[in-house]
Structure formats: structure tokens, C-alpha cells
Specification:
Helix content: over 70%
Number of helices: 4
Shape: elongated
Distance between the termini: 45 Å
Number of strands: 0
Radius of gyration: 17 Å
Length: 110
């Protein structure tokens, strides 16, 4: 059950990254001049992107290494890495919410 849920989460995360976030990132950073490291939102975007990719790669590794085994010992052996992955993913999620708020709150709330 947990393995199937984890696989589904990794697949949805991958689709979201490839379908929404990569095109948005490319359009936002289309030229080297757009990477202004003195801009807090640019730095937030870069950290968000790196954290999201790290969480995705850890998720893929966890799913691939577990291979949906029925034996839960393989799962429990990777509990520490799972905690790291969820922590990194939550950081990426939080930064994504912060960016969304900065981009869309002025439009939504005038």
C-alpha cells in the first residue's frame, strides 16, 4: 500500500515538474541577465528548484530501490532517507507557496 502511494506521488511530482515547473522556470530565466542573485524572489526560485529536484531524485531512488516489495524490512531500512526526502519536499513546497503568493497575491487582492 505505501509503496503504491509513494510510486503515485513520485509520478505525479514528475509530471508536475516537467509539465508546469520546467516551462515556467525556463521562461523566467530565459537569459543569464535574468538571474539576479540580489533579488530575493530569484534566490527563492533557485532554492525552490534545487530542493524540488533533490526531493524528486530521492523519491525516484527510494521507489526504485524498494521496487514495491511486500517485505516491509526494506522500507524501514530507508526510513532516515524518507525523512530527508519529505523534509526537502516540504521546503520546496513552502518556497513554492511563497513564490505563488508573491506573484499572484497582488492580482487577487488588489
Amino acid at each position: 500500500q505505501h509503496g503504491i502511494t509513494m510510486l503515485a506521488a513520485v509520478v505525479l511530482h514528475t509530471i508536475t515538474i516537467l509539465g508546469v515547473m520546467v516551462p515556467s522556470f525556463i521562461s523566467g530565466f530565459s537569459s543569464p541577465a535574468s538571474i539576479d542573485l540580489t533579488n530575493v524572489l530569484v534566490v527563492t526560485s533557485l532554492i525552490h528548484a534545487f530542493a524540488g529536484i533533490a526531493a524528486l531524485l530521492l523519491g525516484i531512488w527510494l521507489v526504485a530501490s524498494w521496487r514495491l516489495k511486500v517485505d516491509m524490512k526494506a522500507c524501514f531500512a530507508k526510513k532516515g532517507i524518507m525523512r530527508i526526502a519529505i523534509t526537502i519536499w516540504l521546503i520546496a513546497l513552502f518556497l513554492g507557496i511563497v513564490m505563488y503568493w508573491n506573484f499572484y497575491a497582488p492580482t487577487l487582492f488588489g
